[in-house]
Every structure is written in structure tokens, then in C-alpha cells.
């Protein structure tokens, strides 16, 4: 009788183990693959799936408050954001992006110089356009975060990622200067900071292995640097890149003739809508209407 009980117990244990293993295998197969992409200061701005489709866009105010909904997980400058409290955990301290202040004092003592570091609650020297705070203790100049000096390895076409993101691609020159990013795939030019997409095709050209930019932070969301944006708009409308660019320059010259632009040339074009913005961010025309 004792042997029968032991055998029965062994069978129950084996059945339980098989059930657990099957359940584990099912849960693994049901997982969803997501790729996370960041901007120049490490903030998560785009999520894509395994098929290279964009599943989520994120935007942030200068001090890190999320636009268009709460973020639960890694978000502003690569730090965990808690949707329940609205706080961001920056390793040493919790940060409230709505008011742009930490909840506790800076653990590092006040500096004698520069005197601006004396305030022990504010974030990034009160200047999130020029500074960030990697660990909640000390601000860091964004331009000094990283230099682009390395040569990228030569990936095989089948190994190219669906979306290639250059996170903190920053240069020592003031934007909008460009820096060459040396790559065996193509001698691409990096306009900082930018989101990059890579094509898996094993040939040359803009759609065959070269890196091409998608959106620059110098313009409102959705706008590309004007020449590139107008060319892309022309391709999508079937009139060609050259014609798209010609239409844009007509709008640009008309704006400058009326005193617009303030001597600057960093206009932007939304390739989806055809809207054109001047350096002040004002919509001055549309490529559809010329």
C-alpha cells in the first residue's frame, strides 16, 4: 500500500511539473517584442514592434512632463517614471517634472563656483535645454555627454536592426552644425540629435543600406529640415523630390521678402501635411497650394 501511495504521489508530481513547464512555454511564446528608441538626451520617444511599425510616440515638455498621457516605465532622460505618483526616479532623488523640482535636497554640497548651483532643489541648473542630470546629484552639459568618434562595425544585411537609434549623439560645436558619422554602410552625416532608420537592403543609396534621418529636434514635432522634408513630400505625392523642393523655396523666398526668417534658414516642412514653418515656428504656407 505504501508503494502505491508513493507511485501515485510521483505521478502527481510529474503531472504538476509538466503542467508548469507547458504553462511557462506558453507564456514565453505569447510575449510581445518592443524596441525602445531615444532622443539626444536619452528620453524614450518611440516604441516599435518586431515589424518596424511605430506603436507609440512620446513627447515631453522641457522639464520632462509627458505630453499626451502618463508614462509608466523608462521615460524622460532614461529615468523610470511612475504614473501613479507622477514622479521620476533619478537614482539619488525623486523629481517632479510638473514643477521642475526635486523633492529632496541635492546630496552634493553647494559649490563655491558657479553660484547658480547653490539652489539644491532645482533641476539641471534651471536650464533643461543646455543641461541634464544623469543621477540626481549634478547637472551635465548636454553638448559634453558624448563625442561621435567611433567607427561602427560592419553589420551584415540580415543583422541590421529594424530601427537604428543613435541615442546621445552630441557634438562640441553648436547646432545646427553637423558631424560625420563614419560607417562602413555609408558615409552618412549626422544632424544632432536625430532619429535614424536603417534599410536592410544590401546595396547603396538612400533606401539601400544608408542611414537616413527622420526628424530633427530643431523643428516642431512632425517637421523635417525643409529641403529634406519637401523632397520627401514630393516623393509621396508622386511629383518628385526636385519639384517638392522647388515649391518650398518659392514659399521661403516669399516669406523672406516680407521680413520673415530673421536672417535664419532653418525652415521646416511636414512631409505628411505639406505645411511649412519658419525659424520662429510659425506656419507660413503649404506645399499643396504653393
UniProtKB/TrEMBL annotation:
Keywords: Repeat
Pfam families associated with the record: TEN_YD-shell
Tree of life domain: Bacteria
InterPro entries registered for this protein in UniProt: Rhs_assc_core, T6SS_VgrG/RHS, TEN-like_YD-shell
Residue ranges constituting the Teneurin-like YD-shell domain according to the UniProt record: 35-128
KW Repeat (keyword) present: yes
Region listing for Disordered, in residue ranges: 252-290
Alphabetized NCBIfam families for the sequence: Rhs_assc_core
UniProt name for this protein: Teneurin-like YD-shell domain-containing protein
Organism per entry: Xanthomonas arboricola
